[in-house]
């Protein structure tokens, strides 16, 4: 122990005596370790950390599956059959979500996102409230008193963390709900939920005839001794029996259960692991750079080490002392890197894209600190072992001769060259990966969304059924909003829709039939998304007309002959061989029409026009067949308003808020944005991954160029006498430059070749992260190595110029 402490003190003194070397090495390693620690914090928080519930591996997300095998919403009758017939689960709870309006005396109306959950939801999760209680059995029945449980965030932000909130009533959508509890802050599922209310099934939902309406999911906990695969297989078997019982509505649907953690993480695992792999490459490049610095430094210490060897120090003793110095250097770097990582993690949590799950849970916790500590030791060993082994050889006479002559052994030089080749190869892999993401992102942002987002302001409204119980009330409010908005300065067009592009709300997918055609079969359904729109919607968004006509005001009134407009994709898929204009469609959904709320009408209409395809979910998702129905023929209490304006968008937003307060002061608007911002937000997650990988690639490029510069500079300093003799014998200075740059170029090209081969081998792993280009992209494979070669040549050219200015007389006199 005493000798180890002595090695630490000695190493500290040596680092202090070489401030230039120490600062460069610490800065290089701290940047790499900090970046690696920050990315590991994200990977740990999102992917590795278990959910904060008892036995989280037993919690299942339950859903139906479509023909593609992917999870999809289930119908209420199917859920009841899953719950009653399965034996793999201790219980199930249905879950859905809705937007509600909270009104309080003297306060601004607030829009909240409520999760509708079965009474056993919290028991199945194993979650207890921090205040009050969870739901009781029977509170999800229609006859029960309305109750609600607030999220910790809503309790803190809207009610000042007042513990007296339990037992009080809040008004939501015109109904009184009694607050019975507050969830703990650790409950983050479902995400972005403000409060919980019991899922009360309406009579029409449990009707067996409603099996075609897939509207919600479920949560379950499997029994001890049952695997998730066994539970999923049982649900699929039940779905198979239901398909035989109800072939018209259930054919083609299966059942499944997946671990809740897997459902929450979704498709984030591959991009995050790819980013983590990229930052590990940066760390390896940094280690190679520091190892080269240590090799150069060790060469200048060979006389010291030779003397220590001559005085009896064994090889293991010298290696240990050098390794202690390396680990101490990496430990200092890790401390600085942790500080950088903590800052970076806070920035990512605050400003990262909303699409990354569990991002709010990301912290620099104990596991991350342990990872960083292990990383410090490992990197210290990696970059310290090679130079330590090179300078600890026992040939004392040779070491003394070489130290006196100012030269180093060929083995050390070969090691430095190998490290540079490795750096270049790793940097190529990073640059190719970054290039693919950059090219993919450029292709993504250049995708035509199907509408013109410039100068369009949008906002959403959710109308409480107590205040707007029938369609006449909804139509009257929409008419007042459109009239007032048209009076605003600069307004050109106003449109209303249920199903705003890039909002992921208002999605109705249903079957349809064509009058005069053979009916579709369960194995070959005709499917379309259905959107409710006013006549001004198309002009407000600038959606092009392909054929026929748009709606007009005469179409958009109750009792008018039913008409529809379809998308170009729908025309191509189902009417490729004939003109769709004039065809009459009937859809597999109904809606209430009577002003009392009773009575139903089938959604149907004659095709009067075909419009261009509009991106609904995001820019990367292929467009789906879509139908547009006049809004006032099926006035719904959730809709978006879109305004095309020549005025400043901020002024328009302020005017919209004022107008809505004047029309209905208890009605909160939400989702107030510009469509240009909506398009930008839709690519926030791929932009985030691109920026991260591009940053790491830039660091790798810099480190590789610095590595080339360092090695060539050292070679020049070691070959001063030789270069002086070359000049004395008539070598021109340009030839000296070419000779020295050629050495750097040879190392760079070797690394580039290896890197390109490795990039080709790894390209397939990036297929899920790119859009619009192939993973074998010639432009990227040509451009990335070219940039790196240019940086390497620049790094070699600077010392080459210095070599060309060598004075042969001075160089030989110094020798």
Query: How many E-type strands?
Result: 22
Shape by Cα distribution: elongated
Low-pLDDT stretches? 402-407
Please tell me the overall pLDDT: 84
First and last CA, distance? 44 Å
The count of helical stretches stands at 25
Quaternary state of this entry equals: single chain
Radius of gyration: 34 Å
The structural class is alpha+beta
Major sheet: size, sense and barrel closure? 6 strands, mixed, barrel
Strand content: 15-25%
Order of adjacent strands in the largest pleated sheet: 3-4-9-6-8-7
Helix percent band = 40-55%
Description:
The structure is a single chain. With 815 residues, the protein is α+β, with helices and mostly antiparallel strands. It is 50% helix and 18% strand. Among the domains are: 186 residues, no CATH class; 196 residues, no CATH class. It has a six-stranded mixed β-barrel with strand order 3-4-9-6-8-7. A hairpin with a 6-residue loop joins strand 3 and strand 4. The two termini are 44 Å apart.
Secondary structure layout plus pairing:
Blueprint lengths: L1 H16 L1 H30 L10 E7 L5 E2 L3 H10 L3 E15 L6 E8 L3 H5 L5 E2 L14 E4 L1 H8 L9 E4 L2 E8 L12 E4 L4 H4 L10 E6 L5 H18 L1 H4 L3 E6 H6 L3 H32 L1 H9 L4 H37 L14 H26 L4 H10 L4 H36 L10 E7 L8 H16 L4 E8 L9 E7 L12 E7 L2 H6 L3 E4 L14 E5 H7 L9 E9 L7 E12 L14 E5 L7 E8 L3 H15 L5 E6 H8 L1 H35 L1 H9 L4 H30 L15 H27 L3 H7 L1
Parallel strand pairs: 4-9, 6-8, 15-20, 17-19
Antiparallel strand pairs: 1-2, 1-10, 1-11, 3-4, 3-7, 3-10, 5-8, 6-9, 7-8, 12-21, 12-22, 13-15, 13-21, 14-15, 14-18, 16-19, 17-20, 18-19
Helix pairs in contact: 1-12, 2-10, 2-12, 2-13, 3-7, 10-13, 10-15, 10-21, 11-14, 12-13, 15-21, 15-23, 15-24, 16-19, 21-23, 21-24, 22-25, 23-24
């Amino acid at each position: 122990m005493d000798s180890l402490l002595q090695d630490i003190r000695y190493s500290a003194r040596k680092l202090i005596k070489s401030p230039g070397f120490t600062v460069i090495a610490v800065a290089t390693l701290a940047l790499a370790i900090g970046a690696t620690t920050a990315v590991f914090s994200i990977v740990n928080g999102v992917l590795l950390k278990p959910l904060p519930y008892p036995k989280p591996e037993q919690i299942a997300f339950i859903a139906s599956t479509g023909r593609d095998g992917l999870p999809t919403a289930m119908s209420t009758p199917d859920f009841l059959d899953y719950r009653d017939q399965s034996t793999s689960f201790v219980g199930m709870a249905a879950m859905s979500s809705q937007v509600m309006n909270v009104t309080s005396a003297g306060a601004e109306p607030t829009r909240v996102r409520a999760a509708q959950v079965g009474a056993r939801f919290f028991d199945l999760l194993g979650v207890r409230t921090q205040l009050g209680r969870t739901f009781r059995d029977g509170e999800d029945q229609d006859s029960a008193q309305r109750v609600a449980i607030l999220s910790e965030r809503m309790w803190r932000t809207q009610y000042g963390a007042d513990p007296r909130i339990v037992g009080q009533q809040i008004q939501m959508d015109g109904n009184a709900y009694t607050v019975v509890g507050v969830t703990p802050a650790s409950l983050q599922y479902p995400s972005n939920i403000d409060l919980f209310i019991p899922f009360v099934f309406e009579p029409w939902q449990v009707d067996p005839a409603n099996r075609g309406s897939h509207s919600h999911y479920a949560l379950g906990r499997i029994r001890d001794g049952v695997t998730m695969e066994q539970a999923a297989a049982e649900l699929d078997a039940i779905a198979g029996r239901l398909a035989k019982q109800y072939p018209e509505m259930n054919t083609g649907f299966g059942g499944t259960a997946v671990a809740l953690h897997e459902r929450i993480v979704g498709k984030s695992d591959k991009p995050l692991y790819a980013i983590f792999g990229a930052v590990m490459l940066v760390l390896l490049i940094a280690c190679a750079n520091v190892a080269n610095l240590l090799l150069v430094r060790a060469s200048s210490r060979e006389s010291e080490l030779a003397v220590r060897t001559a005085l009896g120090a064994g090889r293991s003793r010298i290696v240990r002392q050098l390794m202690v110095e390396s680990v101490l250097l990496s430990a200092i770097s890790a401390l600085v890197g942790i500080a950088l990582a903590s800052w970076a993690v806070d920035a990512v949590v605050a400003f990262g894209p909303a699409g990354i799950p569990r991002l709010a849970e990301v912290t620099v916790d104990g596991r991350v600190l342990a990872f960083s500590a292990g990383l410090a030791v490992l990197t210290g060993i990696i970059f310290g072992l090679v130079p330590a082994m090179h300078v600890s050889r026992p040939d004392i006479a040779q070491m003394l001769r070489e130290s006196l002559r100012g030269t180093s052994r060929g083995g050390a030089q070969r090691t430095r060259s190998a490290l540079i080749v490795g750096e270049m190869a790793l940097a190529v892999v990073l640059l190719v990966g970054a290039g693919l993401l950059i090219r993919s992102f450029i292709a993504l942002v250049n995708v035509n969304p199907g509408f013109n987002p410039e100068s369009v302001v949008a906002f959403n409204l959710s109308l409480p059924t107590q205040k707007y119980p029938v369609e006449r009330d909804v139509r009257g409010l929409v008419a007042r909003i459109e009239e007032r908005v048209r009076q605003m300065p600069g307004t050109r067009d106003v449109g209303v829709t249920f199903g705003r592009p890039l909002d992921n709300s208002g999605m109705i997918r249903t079957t349809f039939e064509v009058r005069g055609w053979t009916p579709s079969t369960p194995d070959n359904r005709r499917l379309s998304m259905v959107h409710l729109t006013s006549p001004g919607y198309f002009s407000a968004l600038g959606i092009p007309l392909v054929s026929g006509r748009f709606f007009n005001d005469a179409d958009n009134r109750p009792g008018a002959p039913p008409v529809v407009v379809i998308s170009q994709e729908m025309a191509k898929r189902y009417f490729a061989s004939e003109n769709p204009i004039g065809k009459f469609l009937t859809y597999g959904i109904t809606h209430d029409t009577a002003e009392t709320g009773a009575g139903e009408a089938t959604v149907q209409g004659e095709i009067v026009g075909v419009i261009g395809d509009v991106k609904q979910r995001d820019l990367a998702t292929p467009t789906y067949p879509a139908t547009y129905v006049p809004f006032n023929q099926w006035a719904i209490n959730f809709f978006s308003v879109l305004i095309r304006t020549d005025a400043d968008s901020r002024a328009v937003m302020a005017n919209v808020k004022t107008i809505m307060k004047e029309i209905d002061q208890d009605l909160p608007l939400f989702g107030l944005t510009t469509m240009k911002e909506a398009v930008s937000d839709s690519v926030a997650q791929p932009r985030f991954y691109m920026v991260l990988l591009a940053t790491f690639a830039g660091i790798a490029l810099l480190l590789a160029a610095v590595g080339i510069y360092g090695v060539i500079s050292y070679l020049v300093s070691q070959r001063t006498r030789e270069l002086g003799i070359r000049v004395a014998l008539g070598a021109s200075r340009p030839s000296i430059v070419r000779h020295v740059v050629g050495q750097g170029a040879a190392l760079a090209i070797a690394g580039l070749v290896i890197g390109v081969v490795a990039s080709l081998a790894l390209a397939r792993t990036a297929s899920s992260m790119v859009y619009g280009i192939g993973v074998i992209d010639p432009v990227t494979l040509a451009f990335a190595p070219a940039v790196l070669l240019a940086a390497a040549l620049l790094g070699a050219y600077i010392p080459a110029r210095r070599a060309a200015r060598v004075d042969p007389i001075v160089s030989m006199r110094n020798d």
